[in-house]
Write a structure and sequence with these properties.
With 401 residues, the chain is α/β, with parallel strands linked by helices. It is 42% helix and 13% strand. The strands form 3 sheets. Strands 2-8-7-6-5-3-4 form a 7-stranded mixed sheet, sandwiched between helices. The chain has a 3-stranded antiparallel sheet with strand order 9-10-12. A two-stranded parallel sheet has the order 1-11. α2 runs parallel beside α9 and α10 packs parallel to α14. The structure holds pyridoxal-5'-phosphate (PLP).
């Protein structure tokens, strides 16, 4: 019997922890296990490791170490940036209006929705057919009482990279704080916070071969926001809770490696993605490639396709049976049957959105993985369409959408 394949094409959901990083982290669980706040040699050794990790993160995004705060992941970093800025600005009487986009990750979107319950007003900007937020739309949405703009760096479902520098410029022209959720971008494409001019930026370890449950929030020096986690004096008294030293070390090592190998990694994953995209377009009819065709404005590892007339979940399960792991839209919202906000926002019809699969490649994938996936995908789509009454009825009079 043929050995079952194990092809992982869901790197936007999470990446495997790098073996080198895991090895370095190990000793911080068992040997250098001190509390980084303790006043003895165990504590000092842990502190030194955290200082080093903070410097690694800072260096990778062009920040100062004093501007980096460790968090329990990307979700916490986003929550802190948005709620912290909102509470701080409100307490200063600066206003209560926030601007974000319709395609944000739930960590940002739902934070904004929650703030609406407490009297904040939020404008959710439209995006164009490729998922871009325009600076003209942002400009139009700004009000006298706008206190914060939060636009994601790169979208987790369709890979669109937003014009962050331009958008931050618009916000700053009105003296408004600008936050970006760079969880999908960090470690994958170059980021320089000074060049971009952002005030806050979130990132997360497990998206670039680092550990889960650790992230960081960059807060530009001089910007003050309210605390999210009140407690002890950790993170320069801005985020209570005993520092997760092994995870911080892992985050630092992972982002340092991702930054050092960024160009090479991008070349590898974009070549795999391009081979896959070309194959799908050549071999499968009635599809829609979601997101921009301009690869310079798209994450190098992302391919999102909608397959008309069939259910994404059925494709996903069939791929899984064939040993291929992908995602039906965003992993974070899988389990929900609601069509993706991002896909609807770029104009994908509801029925078509339901047939969407996101493939995200990693440095561990090969051309053989791509070719095998293409072979199986062609079979699966044909089989499911054969069983789809909708396909039989509509195929005569429908072109690619
Ligand atoms: N923001 C974006 C764009 C994401 O893709 C994710 C995770 O998928 C998050 C935030 C949440 O990050 P974390 O899983 O570290 O909480």
């Amino acid at each position: 019997m043929e050995k079952r394949k194990n092809i992982y094409l869901d790197h936007a959901a999470t990446t495997p922890l790098s073996k080198e990083v895991a090895e370095i982290m190990q000793s911080y669980y068992t040997n250098v296990f001190g509390n980084a706040n303790s006043q003895h040699s165990y504590g000092r050794d842990a502190t030194i490791a955290v200082i080093n990790a903070r410097e690694q993160v800072a260096k990778s995004i062009g920040a100062k170490a004093s501007e980096i705060y460790f968090t329990g992941g990307g979700t916490e970093a986003d929550n802190w940036a948005i709620k912290g800025a909102a509470l701080e600005m409100k307490s200063r009487g600066r206003g209560n209006h926030i601007i974000t986009s319709k395609i944000e990750h739930p960590a940002v979107y739902n934070s904004c929705q929650q703030l609406e319950k407490y009297g904040f007003e939020v404008t959710y900007l439209d995006v164009d057919k490729d998922g871009f937020v325009s600076k003209e739309n942002l400009e139009k949405a700004i009000r006298k009482d706008t206190i914060l703009v939060s636009i994601m760096f790169a979208n987790n479902e369709i890979g669109t990279i937003e014009p962050i520098r331009e958008l931050a410029e618009v916000a700053h022209a009105h003296n408004i704080l600008f936050h970006t959720d760079a969880v999908q971008a960090a470690g994958s494409i170059a980021i320089d916070v000074k060049d971009l001019g952002v005030d806050m930026l979130s990132l997360s370890g497990h998206k670039f071969y680092g550990p889960k449950g650790i992230g960081a929030l960059y807060i530009r020096g001089g910007v003050k926001i309210e605390k999210l986690l009140t407690g002890g004096e950790q993170e320069r008294a801005q985020r209570g809770g005993t520092t997760n030293v092994p995870a911080a070390v892992g985050l630092g090592e992972a982002i340092a490696a991702a930054t050092a190998n960024m160009e090479e990694n991008a070349k590898v994953v974009s070549a795999l993605r391009d081979r896959f995209v070309k194959g799908v377009k050549e071999k499968i009819e009635y599809i829609r490639y979601n997101g921009t065709e301009d690869n310079s404005k798209r994450l190098p590892n992302n391919a999102s396709f909608s397959f008309q007339y069939i259910e994404g979940e059925s494709i996903l399960y069939s791929l899984d049976l064939a040993g291929i792991s992908a995602s039906s839209g965003s992993a974070c919202s899988s389990g929900s049957l609601d069509p993706s906000r991002t896909l609807l926002s770029i104009g994908v019809p509801v029925g078509v959105a339901h047939g969407t699969i996101r493939f995200t490649f990693g440095t561990d994938n090969t051309n053989d993985d791509v070719d095998y996936t293409l072979e199986k995908l062609v079979e699966i789509v044909a089989r499911l369409r054969n069983m789809s009454p909708l396909f039989k009825i509509s195929k005569e009079d429908t072109k690619n959408v």
